[in-house]
Amino acid sequence: MTDPYGFLKTPRRPVAARPVEERLHDWHEVYAGQALLPLISEQAGRCMDCGIPFCHNGCPLGNLIPEWNAYARRGDWRAAAERLHATNNFPEFTGRLCPAPCEDACVLALNADPVTIKNVEQAIADQSWERGYTAPHPPQRLSGKSVAVIGSGPAGLAAAQQLTRIGHTVAVYERADRIGGLLRYGIPEFKLEKWHLERRIAQMEAEGTKFRTGVDIGRDLDATELTRRHDAVVVAVGAMERRELAVPGRELAGIHQAMDYLTLANRVTEGDYASPPLTAEGRHVVIVGGGDTGSDCLGTALRQGAASVVQLDINPEPGDTRPPAQPWPVYPKVFRISHAHEEARGREGSDPRLFSSATLRFDGDTSGRVRALHLTEVEPTARKPRPDTEREIPAELVLLALGFSGPERGGGLMEQLGLTLDDRGNFARDTGFAAEVARRDAWPARRGADGVFVAGDAGRGQSLVVWAIAEGRSAAAATDRYLTGSTELPSPVSAMDRPLVAYGE
Hints:
The protein is α/β, with parallel strands linked by helices. Helix content is 32%, strand content 14%. Helix 7 runs antiparallel to helix 9.
């Protein structure tokens, strides 16, 4: 503990983002170049050493938040980095991308403003790199066992790094042309500049992890071949089965899945295109979906020079305070403003979101391109259209950001490994992340067959980056135990763990 009265003397002061008018003209991170010190050390001093740190429960990684707050307060960045990396492989990712449920679980949040945990985490991670504390950790000896990791998102990368460091030979297979999964092509540059990712990949390569890009397991390489080449397989392909919008006019040109749009925008910043093949420039844009992906599309469209942007959210507008049904330390559904929403407000003067709104149909022009979207207000609970609320808004580019319904079904991976689906449409697994494999000669499915493990969104469904990393770490521990009979690797979550919610929610 540092100053026992710090939370009483120092008000909460988050790191300020760059001015809206500045960042809308580039693709740099919204915090790029902002001064973090000594602000961060002052804010870390607000941690009150509460005795029972509920922030640990707010984060599935079990981050040792009060410990690294104390080190950051004293400016001991080496010790802070050691404590931070003890539970998190990639804190520079989570410090930028996670919505910080740990802050809502902070004891100070009971009746005051919580510690700026996310800002402190990012600062420690960045200081760790800048001061040379994040060196590669190759294994002291090799186990003689090899593991294939399918997918290079945060779950796959975390599993691969843990297994490599414990001494196994690990090969990561990625179907895209670059490593990173959604970190690479799904997250805009203004939220995560990709040199952070490249730096981690270089560290992992120095530790001994092998990367194989452009290999679509199930199509380019039969998945059963991996089980012959390797002693174990970790499936971390994410939840990329996109939800559709089945309304009249969906077939019109100009209506696209959000992830296709974001991928092409990211490929421009990667240097693959001089200009985006799909752009919002000069167009009236409508984003269908009120989540993080929709917000990412909003920020991207604004930077591309959209004529206007509207974001439709079928959910009712949340209040500014915790609902009684979501008491502390539950992560509450409250009105939140992302950086993209702030940018839209700065340009348009109003929030771009229309709450309690649903799409009825699309109208097209004579060339077969979308021209307008018809929407209606919906009832808060039943989500049924309210009478006499239909209206038309211009729509020259429509982006469907409706989330995902589990891992992709096609492509051969599921059939070749004999994977089954649970009742939520994800790859079924036991509490220890071992895949439930359906065999022709064994029905019903038997558990833990063939050394196949499922990690991340592929088994959990779409979730937060902290859950993906936690699952990758836990699946690595399960894989190591399968290969060697025991493990020293940490396992922060089980496959059945879920975020803390209020009873009956």
